[in-house]
Amino acid sequence: MADLKDIEMAPKADIEEVGAQDAIEGKELQSGEKQSHQSGGGTLERYISFISAINFGFILQCSWEAVAVTFQFSLINGGPAAMFYGSLFAGIGTTIVAISLAEMASMDPTVGAQYRWSAKLAPRWNEFWGLMQGWMTVFAWICSCTSNPAILSNIIVGLAIFNYPDYTPERWHTTLIMWAFTILPFIGNFWFRRLLNPLETVGAICHVAFFIISIITLVVLAQRSTASYVFSTLTHDVSGWSNAAVAWGIGLLTVTFPLTGFDGVLHMSDEVKRAKTRVPRSMIASVSMNSLMQFAYILCLLFTIGDVEKVANTPTLLPIIEVYYEATGSKHATNLFVVMLAIIIFIAFFNVFASVSRLVWAFSRDKGLPFSNFFGYVHPQLKMPLNALALVGACIMLLAIINIGSTTAFNAFISLPALALYISYFFPILFIFLRRISSNPPTYGPFKLGILGIPLNLLALCYIIFIIVWMPFPTILPVTGNNMNYAGPLVGAVILGALCDWVISGRKRFQVPVVQQRPDF
Fold first, then answer.
1. Secondary-structure class of domain 46-509 per CATH
2. DSSP code for 395
3. CA 370 – CA 358 distance, rounded (Å)
4. Average confidence score pLDDT of the chain
5. Predicted TM-score of the model (pTM)
6. Taking the domains of the chain in order of start, what are their residue ranges?
7. pLDDT 10s digits, 76-104
8. What is the DSSP string of 214-282?
């Protein structure tokens, strides 16, 4: 990782400007004045402090919890080798991507983020790239929002099978559970500002405390695996993929998916105080901490996994249930540990819901979506984009119906947001890289990569391309209608839809966002 001394800061004038803004903010807070961003029918107020911003991204990713409930994909593709070495690879690669995006966040911390940067930094056809990027980013985050209720519903069904062996799950059961989990965060986001501080505090405490409790329990009680199993076992003869390299690549899904979404706090930028310095720090801190926790949990899990055959073939369809049950020998204790995972994922759902609603609002404000005036409206009393929030909720409800038609729809809910989010990260980094090596470099913010910018941007682009290659692969062969990975076709449909929108009305409707010259309170 880059040494902090090698990362340049902005010129002295910029630093003095940030310091002056901090001093102004302090006086404003003492006098009780509130700074706000005017839009639509109301305002978005800056109320998110530095600690809340850090906790927001830290909890939103909930990486070790996501690994715990999705590592079944890696068990059949790649196995321990994909999980252990893949977690190292994903942690380093995602951190480099986050650092590259953090530099842009310091230049222009904005709710629109990726699409606004693409529109600003693209060498030509700025409106086109901005609109295309906007559609991809909105789609990626709506899919990411869908993954939380999908995982939660999988946990509920798994626990039902575990506690009641006679229970026969139906696919429509999962859809109804997803709908139920969607309603609560939707309503809760009406008062998100009041809920933020206690919710983030409770979430951060649980995220760390449950991690420590899980590690200690497994280390003390579980049966030990051999070192050769953890470090040398490459599974490539279970899913139908006989090529070891392909199996390892597909197995990366488990370790790359939980580390996406670090840009969530970016889409809350209009509500973060001193966003030019705090948003980049929050992004890098959340990725770094979650990468370390994910790696530690995977290492512990592999050494304490117990009977691999029983875990892989558990009737609950959720291997982590069998892992905890073999370790504790108690159904009550197993239920408690799995519910602990669900609590964190549920709290993260509030954050994801809030983040994507702001993104939809910002894209509508810039005339990126049809009916932009309606979805770009901010409720004057609640001070939140109510119509955008309702659109996100409706999209989640509709996507949940996919589960009724496919037995492996859960795989789509996991691979789809990861694929779409990595694509949304690619183009802004590509464009700033091209600007960096051109005769027209961008104006940097307080956080500047300096001489490390070119190599870090290149590494980020290579990592993203490598990950994108594997995301659309089906996890099981032979491919049927039921086990098909629909991530690739759905992303292709979104790109085609965005192109149609551009041709029909988007090129006339969409406005290239302009950086608003306003104090960074």
1. mainly alpha
2. H
3. 16
4. 83
5. 0.85
6. 46-509
7. 889 999 999 999 999 999 999 999 999 99
8. HHHHHHHHSPPPPHHHHHH--B-SSSS---HHHHHHHHTHHHHGGG--GGGGGGGGGGBTTHHHHHHHH
